[in-house]
Amino acid sequence: MALVGLFVLSGQILRVYGLLLTLLLVLVELELTALAAWWPLLESWLGRAFFQSFVAVLTFRWG
Length: 63
Fold this sequence. Notes:
Blueprint: H1 2-29, H2 39-43, H3 45-59
Keywords: Membrane, Transmembrane, Transmembrane helix
Transmembrane segments: 16-39
């Protein structure tokens, strides 16, 4: 049962991460000046790869 609880917890963490990332991207799309420093990171392939790798690590489950 502890392993099932861990999977449920990891799913909740993924939902929170996805929500925060979505809010960040919406704010960047609104072109708020406070987030102008994040633009190069979010527009570059390296920044996108970082976010995709982080999501992949969060969703990885041992078989």
